[in-house]
């Protein structure tokens, strides 16, 4: 089993929002590896970062992504940093991957100063830019289609993704 679409992109770009719309439009299920991690660990992602550190979180995330890629046949959203793992990127090579992109101002609007996003807790604008410098090329390399989300409603992003993939609705 393999997902119909894998969504990648930075925190707050709309993976959950658009992922659920895509799932409705295509008549399939929606799954999110961040949610799988929270359910499996019984604690929030922020708590995992604080208690065990980022590298422990990445190890948990890598397992969660591998499991979801083999178990789920609908829309799968990956955590924003999952793309950093080389083994995960190798697994994505065989998948239909949509990279949802946005610019920094849109990112600040959508994520704000939300403490639930530990990587953006201090100086979100600068941290977002730094994260994207390290990740943009990884998202782009993994992507079957890049769908910009700036100035688009979630419905418009959903439509653009369906068009880009030439997927027909259920
Ligand atoms: N196209 C859009 N235009 C404007 N706001 C949007 C759009 N897509 C999502 N949002 C809003 O941006 C915020 C983040 O969206 P969402 O939670 O779907 O992103 P995400 O990529 O799943 O983030 P996370 O990193 O938390 O998983 C939400 O408040 C959502 O309503
Ligand atoms: O961009 C990241 O590194 C992260 C994104 C979120 O989806 C979560 O997986 C976590 O907050 C880390
Ligand atoms: Mg989400």
From TrEMBL:
Its main location: cytoplasm. It is found in: Cytoplasm. GO terms for biological process: amino acid biosynthetic process; aromatic amino acid family biosynthetic process; chorismate biosynthetic process. GO terms for cellular component: cytosol. The keyword Ligase does not apply. ATP binds at residues 12-17, 117, 152. Its cofactor is Mg(2+). Pathway: Metabolic intermediate biosynthesis; chorismate biosynthesis; chorismate from D-erythrose 4-phosphate and phosphoenolpyruvate: step 5/7. Mg(2+) binds at residue 16. Pfam families: SKI. It comes from the Bacteria. InterPro entries: P-loop_NTPase (IPR027417), Shikimate/glucono_kinase (IPR031322), Shikimate_kinase/TSH1 (IPR000623), Shikimate_kinase_CS (IPR023000). CDD domains: SK. Substrate binds at residues 34, 58, 80, 135. Binds 1 Mg(2+) ion per subunit. SUPFAM superfamilies: P-loop containing nucleoside triphosphate hydrolases. Its EC number is 2.7.1.71. Keywords: Amino-acid biosynthesis, Aromatic amino acid biosynthesis, ATP-binding, Cytoplasm, Kinase, Magnesium, Metal-binding, Nucleotide-binding, Transferase. The keyword ATP-binding applies. It is an enzyme of class 2 (transferase). It catalyses: shikimate + ATP = 3-phosphoshikimate + ADP + H(+). Catalyzes the specific phosphorylation of the 3-hydroxyl group of shikimic acid using ATP as a cosubstrate. HAMAP family: Shikimate_kinase. Belongs to the shikimate kinase family. Monomer. This is Shikimate kinase. The lineage of its organism: Bacteria, Bacillati, Actinomycetota, Actinomycetes, Kitasatosporales. The gene is aroK.
């Amino acid at each position: 089993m393999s997902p119909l679409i894998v969504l990648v992109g930075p925190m707050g770009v709309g993976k959950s929002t658009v992922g659920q719309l895509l799932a409705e439009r295509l008549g399939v299920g929606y799954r999110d590896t961040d949610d799988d991690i929270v359910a499996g660990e019984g604690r929030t992602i922020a708590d995992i970062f604080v208690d065990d550190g980022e590298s422990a979180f990445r190890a948990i995330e890598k397992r969660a992504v591998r499991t979801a890629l083999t178990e789920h046949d609908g829309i799968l959203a990956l955590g924003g940093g999952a793309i950093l793992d080389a083994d995960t990127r190798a697994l994505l090579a065989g998948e239909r991957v949509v990279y949802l992109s946005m610019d920094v101002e849109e990112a600040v609007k959508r994520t704000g100063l939300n403490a639930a996003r530990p990587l953006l807790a201090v100086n979100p604008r600068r941290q977002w830019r730094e994260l994207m410098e390290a990740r943009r090329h990884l998202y782009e390399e993994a992507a079957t289609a890049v769908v910009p989300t700036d100035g688009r409603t979630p419905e418009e992003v959903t439509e653009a993704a369906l068009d880009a993939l030439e997927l027909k609705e259920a």
